[in-house]
Amino acid sequence: MALRLGLIGMGLMGQAFIYNLHKSQFIIQGFDIDPARMDQLKGQGGHPMDTPAQASKDVDCVIISLPTSEISRASIMGSDGILEGAKEGLYICDTTTARPEDSESLHAELEKLGLNYMDTCVSGTSTMAQDGDLVIIAGGDEENFNACKKYFDGFSRSAYYMGPAGSGARTKLIINLILAGNRLALAEGMVLGEKAGLEANNLLEVLQDGACSSKTMLDKGPKMIKADYSKEGQIKVSLKDSRLMLEQGQRLGAPMLMTNIWSQIIQVSYEKGYGEKDTVAFYEVLRGMAGLEERPGIDNVPMGKDE
Fold first, then answer.
1. What would the pLDDT profile of 243-252 be if each residue is shown by its tens digit?
2. Distance of CA 296 to CAs 25, 116, 225, 230, 306, Å?
3. What is the pLDDT of residues 213-259, one digit of tens each?
4. CATH domain 171-289 topology
5. pTM score, whole prediction
6. 285: Cβ–Cβ under 8 A, 6 or more apart, which residues?
7. Which CATH class is domain 4-164?
8. Cα(285)–Cα(50) distance, rounded to whole angstroms?
9. Are 132 and 20 in contact (CB under 8 A)?
10. Which residue(s) pair with 8 in the sheet?
11. Is beta strand 158-163 parallel, antiparallel or unpaired with respect to 91-94?
12. For strand 116-123 and strand 47-48, is the pairing parallel, antiparallel, or unpaired?
């Protein structure tokens, strides 16, 4: 018998969830503020709902995929939110890259109401998500994590229990921090290579085969070379995440040397109009700093700072 679940938020990542959950024979009832996303859900055999409350009715699990902690909280606790449709014991799996302290608060508040909240962050781009190549890192109660494995299997390749509430969110920020360093190092090296007159594709091939190789080189290197900034992530989201990373460093007294530089570069990229473009559009800022031409990119997204 097919399992039914709720889905709140159907952007780039949410659409990938739908694709894989549908392949895994799940029945999906979902909500998004964007009517086009609702139409996409219907086109894939899902059931659009008018509110988060309706999307949460008569299911055992709801997956949330939203941009920020604040929006996630509103979808749960606000008017027509998940709370209004939830039955006791509902599992709420929040994939939002969130402030860990916000995840801890939601867990504690919802536990008192008989609901099971977990910060179940995901590692991977939306393209990787489409291919089912996501890793889930979860914080919360371990028995709830084990109970939700059947849902995680529907849209990821592996899932890890990281500890109490907030642990998944903290792990995701650390993953993103290290990923940012990989992307920044690759971009800096590629710009240096261009200034030195090396052929870009040849250089990237050597880097991919060398001791410094990483997934970033395979996924993002070609995008940098082609100025292909079609969205797999977004500059504006990376800026939000960088600020959360720095906040954790300040809270915990950890050095954040690279992250400070990364955050400044992403801030400049946002202010220069790359907010809606893929995260590696920051490559053009480095090109400009090197005296090379900044290319607008080929993703057909109008330039201009996102409001």
1. 999 999 999 9
2. 41, 45, 13, 11, 16
3. 998 999 999 999 999 999 888 999 999 999 999 999 999 999 999 99
4. N-(1-d-carboxylethyl)-l-norvaline Dehydrogenase; domain 2 (1.10.1040)
5. 0.91
6. 265, 268, 269, 272, 274, 294
7. alpha beta
8. 41
9. yes
10. 31, 64
11. unpaired
12. unpaired
